[in-house]
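Reposting from the mailing list since nobody answered there.

I have sequence plus structure tokens for a pair of proteins and want to know whether others read the tokens the same way I do. The first protein:
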Amino acid sequence: MGNCIRHQSSTSEVDGSSSPTNHKTTTTEVKIKITKKQLEELLVKMDMKELRVEQVLDHLMEIAHNSEYNSLHQPWKPALQSIPEVN
């Protein structure tokens, strides 16, 4: 699963003042790439466990973070098998 996360901060005006100390909200934009089959499985799990969307997104982001961490910290292994020499 390839996931992209982008954090944005925005300020809202109160009484005509645009000071960032009045009200500051943080939004998170998440782009999730999954197959249709994975989406169907995810929706079934949501219905069975009665999970909220926020809980599911938190779970997906945790999985993505762990897989990125593991892939970065594993030693490189060659994908090809050795070819025996013929005498």
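The second protein, same order (residues first, tokens after):
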Amino acid sequence: MRERRFIKFASVEYDGQLYMTPQDFLDSVVESEPR
């Protein structure tokens, strides 16, 4: 469940790997849906 949420909010993809920016992380904690 948590992984699906991470994928939904992570906005940076590098070398086939998804990454979260600090803003993505804050959004994932505060928002229920990504912007």
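Reply #1 (J.P.):
I read it the same way you do. Residues 17 and 35 are 21 Å apart (CA to CA).
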